[in-house]
Amino acid sequence: MFETILDEEERGQVGIGTLIVFIAMVLVAAIAAGVLINTAGFLQTQAEATGQESTSQVSDRLQVVSQSGSFNDAEGVIESVDFVVAQSPGSDNIDLSETSVEILGGDGQETFTLSSDFNDDGSQINIFTGSPGDVVLTDTSDRAEVTLNLDDSSGEISHIVGNDGYLVEEGDSLTVTFTTPSGATTTTELRVPSTVVRDSVRL
Length: 203
Description:
By secondary structure, the protein is of the alpha+beta class. The chain has 2 domains: 15-59; 61-202, Immunoglobulin-like. It is 22% helix and 33% strand. It is built from 1 helix and 11 strands, in the order αβββββββββββ. The strands form 3 sheets. The protein has a 5-stranded antiparallel sheet with strand order 6-8-2-1-11, with no helix packed on it. Strands 5-4-9-10 form a 4-stranded antiparallel sheet, with no helix packed on it. Strands 3-7 form a two-stranded antiparallel sheet. Strand 1 and strand 2 (77-87) form a beta hairpin. This is Flagellin. It comes from Halorubrum aquaticum.
């Protein structure tokens, strides 16, 4: 019933040496598994962070509800432009004081950050909802008016875009890009009619 092994070389090896080799193999496998688990956890965390940042760059955008400008009939230039902005659907809170603006037109390029009060770049924020001084859009129903002063030809505006103002005349166009703190951008184009007959013009 049982086979008798007569050859000593065919016997199984039993002893402390075999045990040591077995334990070593288990330890190597455990260390390798630990490294793989740590690497997988790091990659998962990094992937989640990248996904959240990518989502924010797409969804945390401003939506331009309306835009208009104030025309100086005597000088024939646009003195300031006003934007009514809101959160895009699905957007998180947007801090307008950390939102940057880039304007590009015939008078060159200007880039600056918005401010709740008129600053050296000539920007001002006025949120219609929320407490005074609040410059954070927290709900899709919130609306904020962003004013960019372009010209100082009247002598009444102390803060303007750039050192010498930004020249926008009849027939000109201006591209304005808002970039939120998360990096999401919204671009809108303003076109001044060839003939302006009112102090305030819709752009």
